DNA sequence: ATTAGCACTCGAACCTTGCGAGTGCTAAAA
DNA sequence: TTTTAGCACTCGCAAGGTTCGAGTGCTAAT
């Protein structure tokens, strides 16, 4: 158990870290010489060479070709990330500034998501992905029916957590807005705070228009439950194109396809994130064997939200050679920020700007 | 006036068209020889050569380098597009199929937009951009206030056209849901069908809670008016990367940045489209001198919607060397399809699948 | 155990060269 | 007058060759 840590000597760990660090900065293979020269380690290049050779045998480094330096393998990156403690935190002043921005748009979930995506893309210099908060077990908060034209109505469902779902429906005959409103009032009373299953049970208690509308409420609740997560907001897609590993158009395409293919993203979110606690930052390196499409990419992911209310995902996608320290910090910060926003928007009684409480 | 058409002889027009057509397919410079061989024109290569030389002088063609064939300039493309009548229409069977898909998700604007974007990206093999329908002069249809937690409320605005706007607001003290509902009912009665300006005028007629809520209704209406267009839906971004002209990562980046930069897109929409009638298809070649970021790109745009209800935009972005015929047809079709959906969703009394009426 | 020294490897960069597509010009043919 | 055949010329591109140097692995000395 403990011995696993000692597969590598302390010196090897240091060298591996240095090589990885240097490669992340330079995007080039790292030779023994640069390691010795850039970081004044008390060793000769020959010694470093031997150690690097060992690290290569152990699968932490590899050589793109014989006469080149070494670059980390996914395993090497994994080790590097594992040792990374805290690094590249966003300066406190910037944190405050960002926080302030969020509080200014506190009444619009969509805007949070956009802002978060934008800031994250900028901080990490990679592509960011944010999902809007979404409840797992949806409870109804309020339902409203609005007559639009003829026998057509608009149903608006407000879920606990503030999520909104709308739906246009055509009825068999037109009803007055008064009638629709009263049914809305009744169903809200009956269904308020209930989960989908309970609502569907209760649908049969009604008849006539009430039944018809109660039925589509249940139907829409089911859809809400089936929705894996909220809308996905992306930003900084062009950042990844700037990375040298995506100079080849084919590689770039493969990487960006991931961002367009929502099904893959949803799978990713549900498999890696949703079991974890909010606030934990996960790093997925090179697709981790499971996702072929992500061979050249790493993803830094975190879940945010408040238990019992709603959860969302915040993440960054970039090349495997990524500034993990900075990115992880940024994702962690953003996850916290968004959790705070979710919490605030549901529990706070008054608008208090953060600098007023501090 | 008429003479302008005769800047070119008929033969030159044909040759220009052939060269353009060939270049669009092959992505390579086109020489006099291929023109003669591929299309059995009754001329020798020397004659074609002379004509191509003239076309070059007139600015319709250009040579990437001395010993290469010719490629169309933006002016050449423009001529080509102008002469294009109807070409590459989507087969009727496919049209029906697509139409059917739309009618199946008739009750969700967001889904239309996604579907339209997806189909358009596939049809044009380029990037598609769709904005959800949005009214120009917003009228209020319904307003609802929902108590969420403590003194916090959720306001839901339904605009004529079905657009929904939500907003979380904290009041000075908590109110019962009954009280909120009755204010909602009152304000709906008072404001229904009115535009922003009239609503703001009437705000002062109220006092207490009614005043407070009426005020934020007005505020939110103003925001709705200020919103240039609905959400932008993108698809097929990776299609663009597959084009040889974007093999260079820098060029690709420049092109895709346009899609990320919403402000530019909005500008584009408002400047080129919003003055035009719905259904008209506009083609913007190589940024048309105005947009430097689009030097390598062409955009095919159309406005869709129903006067008095709502309008949106549908477009395709691809390389200047684009299959204009097919793309224009696809955009025209999609524009019509979406107009139909907007119309249907607001006027139709019953759900009728299109194949039932046909 | 570490290190200096050295031979070796191999990719990147640069040059040369030949090829061929495509042109423009001219003079002859229609 | 228009078209065309013929031909010299240009120039990008691909292929092959050479150099250069970074980086390695091994060995022998410390």
Structure description:
The structure is a homodimer of 358-residue chains. Helices cover 49% and strands 18% of the residues of chain A. Chain A has 358 residues and is of the alpha+beta class. Chain A has 14 helices and 10 strands. Chain A folds into 3 domains: 2-83, Orthogonal Bundle (Arc Repressor Mutant, subunit A); 92-134 and 229-357, 2-Layer Sandwich (Beta-Lactamase); 140-226, Enolase-like, domain 1. The two termini of chain A are 45 Å apart. In chain A, helix 1 (10-26) packs across helix 4 (74-83) and helix 2 packs across helix 3 (45-57). Chain A binds a DNA duplex (30 and 30 nucleotides) through residues 29, 31-33, 43-47, 49-50, 52-53, 63-70.
List the helices and strands and how they pair.
The structure is a homodimer of 358-residue chains.
Chain A (H helix, E strand, L loop, with lengths): L9 H17 L5 H7 L6 H13 L3 E2 L8 E2 L1 H10 L8 H13 L4 H16 L2 E5 L8 E10 L2 E8 L4 E7 L6 H15 L4 H8 L4 H19 L5 E4 L1 H6 L6 H12 L1 H12 L7 E5 L11 E10 L3 E10 L4 H24 L6 H4 L1
Antiparallel strand pairs in A: 1-2, 3-7, 3-10, 4-5, 5-6, 8-9, 9-10
Helix pairs in contact in A: 1-3, 1-4, 2-3, 6-13, 8-9
Chain A binds a DNA duplex (30 and 30 nucleotides) through helix 3.
Q: Write the CATH fold name of the largest domain in chain A.
A: Beta-Lactamase
Number of helices of chain A: 14
Which structural class best describes the helix and strand composition of chain A?
A: alpha+beta
CATH architecture annotation of the largest domain in chain A: 2-Layer Sandwich
The largest chain-to-chain contact, stated as pair and per-chain residue counts, equals: A-B, 45 and 45 residues
- What's the count of strands of chain A? 10
Q: Profile the largest sheet of chain A.
A: 5 strands, antiparallel
Approximate strand percentage of chain A:
15-25%
Low-pLDDT segments, ≥5 res of chain A: 349-358
What is the element string of chain A, with H for helices and E for strands? HHHEEHHHEEEEHHHEHHHEEEHH
Shape of chain A: elongated
């Amino acid at each position: 158990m403990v011995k696993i840590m000692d597969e590598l000597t302390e010196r090897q760990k240091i060298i591996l870290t240095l090589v990885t660090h240097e490669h992340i900065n330079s995007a080039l293979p790292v030779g023994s010489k640069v390691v010795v020269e850039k970081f004044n380690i008390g060793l000769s290049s020959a010694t470093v060479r031997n150690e690097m050779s060992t690290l290569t045998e152990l699968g932490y480094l590899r050589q793109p070709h014989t006469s080149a330096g070494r670059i980390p393998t996914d395993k090497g990156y994994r080790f590097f990330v594992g040792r990374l403690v805290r690094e590249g935190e966003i300066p406190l002043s910037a944190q405050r500034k960002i926080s302030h921005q969020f509080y200014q748009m506190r009444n619009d979930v969509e805007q949070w998501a956009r802002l978060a995506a934008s800031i994250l893309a900028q901080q990490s210099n990679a592509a960011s992905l944010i999902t809007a908060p979404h409840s797992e077990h949806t409870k109804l908060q309020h339902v409203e029916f609005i007559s639009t034209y003829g026998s057509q109505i608009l149903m608006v469902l407000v879920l606990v957590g503030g999520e909104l779902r709308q739906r246009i429906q055509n009825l068999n005959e037109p009803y007055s807005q008064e009638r629709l409103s009263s049914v809305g009032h009744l169903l809200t009373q009956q269904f308020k705070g209930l989960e989908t299953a309970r609502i569907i049970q209760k649908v049969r208690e009604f008849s006539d228009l009430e039944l018809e509308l109660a039925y589509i409420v249940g139907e829409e609740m089911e859809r809400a439950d089936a929705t894996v997560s909220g809308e996905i907001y992306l930003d900084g897609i062009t950042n990844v194109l700037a990375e040298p590993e995506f100079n080849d158009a084919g590689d770039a395409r493969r990487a960006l396809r991931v961002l367009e293919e929502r099904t893959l993203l949803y799978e990713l979110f549900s498999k890696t994130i949703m079991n974890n606690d909010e606030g934990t930052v996960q790093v997925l390196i090179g697709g981790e064997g499971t996702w072929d499409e992500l061979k050249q990419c790493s993803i830094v992911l975190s879940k945010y939200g408040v238990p019992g209310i709603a959860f969302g995902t915040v993440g960054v996608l970039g090349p495997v050679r990524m500034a993990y320290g900075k990115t992880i910090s940024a994702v962690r910060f953003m996850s916290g920020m968004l959790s705070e926003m979710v919490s605030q928007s549901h529990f706070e009684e008054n608008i208090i700007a953060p600098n007023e409480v501090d």
